[in-house]
Amino acid sequence: xxxxxxxxxxxxxxxxxxxxxxxxxxxxxxxxxxxxxxxxxxxxxxxxxxxxxxxxxxxxxxxxxxxxxxxxxxxxxxxxxxxxxxxxxxxxxxxxxxxxxxxxxxxxxxxxxxxxxxxxxxxxxxxxxxxxxxxxxxxxxxxxxxxxxxxxxxxxxxxxxxxxxxxxxxxxxxxxxxxxxxxxxxxxxxxxxxxxxxxxxxxxxxxxxxxxxxxxxxxxxxxxxxxxxxxxxxxxxxxxxxxxxxxxxxxxxxxxxxxxxxxxxxxxxxxxxxxxxxxxx
Length: 281
Ligand SMILES: [Zn+2]
Prior knowledge:
Blueprint: H1 2-25, E1 29-34, E2 37-42, E3 49-55, E4 60-63, H2 75-82, E5 87-90, H3 96-99, E6 108-111, H4 114-117, E7 125-128, H5 130-133, E8 139-142, E9 145-147, E10 153-154, E11 159-164, E12 173-177, E13 182-186, E14 194-196, H6 199-212, E15 218-221, H7 230-246, E16 252-256, E17 259-266, E18 269-273
Helix pairs in contact: 6-7
The structure holds zinc ion.
Zinc ion binds next to loops.
């Protein structure tokens, strides 16, 4: 009788623990893209974010650390549960919805771009401005590593390259995995309203990726539920080129982060063009 009672108590405790665990992690949804690549979605976040975990035999790279809007769930614990190798965090860019939870990661890398590296203070920290993070919150990132640019480097049986792809923001980066035929584009391309900071740079960045890749590539964006096709990169590029050439009137005014902004739609591509890059104003 006593034994049955104890078993029942343990069973109930097990159920409670399992329920708590589920609740703790339900903010993040994991999608296994292959045995060494994961998409970590935040379907409830205001911007419907995705971060990507790219795993090698020796180390892994987390491309963005989430929106930071999660009240439940722990992206660091989640990432650690998925891999058995050290994880380095790299940001696709510094907007607030990509740098949340950053301080949970002891190893943060900065791409080896001289203009960025010179911004590190004596403690190897980079202080982000409101315009860079699009948030009045103060963000200070402690940088431990630098990642090479424009050349392949090895995570252990998995080589990737990082490219500087400005246009959405001055400090935007894309990861190319040639062997896996993956492209992780951050906010340079996704299905939805694009934010364009620099027209010329945006087109150049897309052009660079179009030449680096081909139609066999999977394009993984940081927002939305729908993946892009390789041909979408050129569609966006051509829409921006047409905009630059014709300077059409805006389709309508919309609200973005509490401010009125002019939205353009060209060949089905919606975007906001803000040369200041400060979409908060
Ligand atoms: Zn962004």
